Please model this.
Amino acid sequence: MNGMTIFVRSFGCRLNQAEGAQIEAAFEAAGFTLVKFGIPSDVIVVNTCTVTQKAEIEGMKLLRHFRKSQPDACLVLTGCAVQTVNPDESRIADIIVPHAQKDDLVAIVMQYFERDYTPPTHILTPHTQRAAIKVQDGCDCYCAYCIVPYARGTPHSRPFDVCLAEAQVMIDAGFQEIVVTGCNTSLYEDSGRNFFDLVKAMLALPGLGRLRLSSIEPKTFERDIVRLMLDEPKLCRFLHLPIQSGDNNVLKWMGRRYTIDHVRFALDEIYQALPDISIGVDLIAGLPGETEEGFAKSYALIEAYPFSKVHVFPFSERPGTAAAVMPNQLSAPARKRRTKKLIQLAEEKRIEYMQRFVGRPVVLLVEQIDHRKTAHGWTAEYLPCEISGLDNSHIRKLHTFTPTGIRNDALVNER
Model:
């Protein structure tokens, strides 16, 4: 132990959260002690997000807070906002780590303190119950609303064998669920092998409990993945598709690489093969030029399918993106109204989907036991659960139970 303390705060998407957990684990492996928010620490890492301007502002606000409240701490700024924020704002940090050097963050901090450091081959994330493995980063789709290609750069994939080796290390360490993540996983490629090849190889790893995939771009691998689910019970029957709109005009203005006809064809085929599959989608409400008719098409898309989760985002003018300067911008009240209407429908669809599993056995990964001795976890379909009768020995293990109802957006076994 080196006797130093560390606090890490991550903003934004699941990928950024997974990277934040990896940063924490890497500092712990180097001998640092994690502390909670507000406790003085030697090093503070603010892992920023820039998908929306609001997220970027929140990250930089926290950075300024720490500069005032803990002036003697080594303040580290990293994450996507490093590439987009005004340089004058970022200078209050002692160390600025751009996205391309994020994996070397601990080494950079240790150099700052003039301490020797040899990075380990693999780093476990002990404070998480599911192991996330980032297989690629970056994107070159340049959708009109998205800043990510400018923040994370062009696509680059981790070596095929390295991904498999890391997954095996996580399995051997006792993780029962492996989550495959990336900025745009459909762009994974290594020596002629694509994302589908990588998924198949991971499913063959000895000792694997189950494998979960993060977001997949429509019109890429979703139908192949579903066919694989039919033969591979270890592959969670869950997909997340960032559809973004149900209107072809809006999709064209966004720069998306598919039409809503492609989406509907794939969804019809998927639900025919796996009627109870859990599919989550992303939708943006109020893109510039979206008419009432166009919005109605998005609403009709959600009505037509038994989606388990619909993430609805009001359009936000992200400086630096094409959509921020598009003509025919909608008013903030119009975006808010459309967002609210979609969210109300999404909540109804989610309850309808969850009702399917009441009275049927489901398998959850137990992630924690609270002070009421209630176990919390997620099913393979990515539905939250709260059940009684388990103890800490069940944490990070798969457990089968039969829900008797739904309470507070969770499957429960009330007696």
Q: What stands out?
A: Residues 131-355 form a domain with the pyruvate-formate lyase- activating enzyme fold (CATH 3.80.30.20). The longest strand covers residues 278-285. The mean pLDDT is 93.
